[in-house]
Write a structure and sequence with these properties.
Elements lengths: L2 E5 L18 H10 L4 E8 L4 E7 L5 E7 L5 E6 L1
Antiparallel strand pairs: 1-2, 2-3, 3-4, 4-5
Length: 82
């Protein structure tokens, strides 16, 4: 399985990720994460074969959040706080 990974080292930049097969781009997923309470992004991955974006980050209290987004529809499939 081929997984393309974008690791966010800082809040200043975001690497471009080609997502030809997906309708939802990385910028949209990033904004969705911020809208849902993620204030620090740790990782965004596009699982092309599954058609899912996986987002990992933290909320304002330092709690970990994992979010999965359908890469074609933009629907949040999973939102879990640890």
């Amino acid at each position: 399985m081929r997984v393309l990974t974008v690791v966010l080292a800082s809040a200043l930049g975001l690497a471009a990720l080609p997502a030809a097969a997906a309708n939802v781009d990385i910028e949209t997923v990033r904004e969705m994460a911020f809208d849902r309470g993620i204030v620090r992004l740790e990782e965004i991955e596009l699982h092309r074969r599954k058609g899912v974006w996986k987002v990992e980050g933290e909320d304002a209290y330092g709690e970990e959040i994992e979010m999965k987004v359908d890469a074609y529809t933009g629907r949040v499939i999973k939102m879990e706080r640890d």
